[in-house]
Structure formats: structure tokens, C-alpha cells
Amino acid sequence: MDEQLCSEKWVDRVAIVSASGELDMLTAPQLRDAVQSALSQNPAGLIVDLTDVEFLGSAGMQVLMEAHNQTGGTETRFAVVAEGSATSRPLKITGIADLIDLFSSLDEAVENLTA
């Protein structure tokens, strides 16, 4: 199993947390920590980029919903970048895609949140 890595970068006041590898119950806490770290800096927006994620399990989706719930009612906008069967498909099947802003590319998400 590859170690799942999370990285954080910023575009203006939008935090981008990128994950790669498998996002399951063993690696989801790393994503949770990265999301919490970004949110603690009071960003105008938070994007979770799942472009390089090969598997998105329920624990990873739970982290996304927690971030959605945390940013709801605040000034921080929240979006997820997911494209393809490994990431966008499970989000659509579970109905999460109906609740969160889902983009197929990071550029599109950044453009939307920084506009």
C-alpha cells in the first residue's frame, strides 16, 4: 500500500489540500488533519483536490462531508475536485455530489472560488 500524501498550497486566500493514492480508513485521518490545518488559517475558500486519488473509500468521503459541514454557514467556500470513476463516481452514487461543489479540474475550482 502506498502511503497517502496530502499537501497544502494557497492561491490568494484559497487553500488547496491535495491528496494522492488511496483514501481509506487508514489514510483519511491524514486528509482530516490537512483540512483542519488549512481551515485553522481562516481561508476564503477550501478546495480538496482528489485528482491523484486512486481509491476513495467511505472514510475519505466522511472527511469531505465533515469539511462541508464545518464550512457551511461560514464565509469559507468549499469545493472538491474529482474526475473519473475512482473519485467522482462514488461521490455521485452516495449523493455527496449533490451537497458539495464538485469540479472536474483544479483550475476550474480555483477560478470559481477566487472569482
Automatic annotation (TrEMBL):
Residues 14-113 form the STAS domain. Belongs to the anti-sigma-factor antagonist family. It comes from the Bacteria. InterPro entries: Anti-sigma_ant, STAS_dom, STAS_dom_sf. One of its GO terms (molecular function) is anti-sigma factor antagonist activity. Transmembrane segments: none annotated. It comes from Mycolicibacterium moriokaense. Pfam families: STAS (PF01740). This is Anti-sigma factor antagonist.
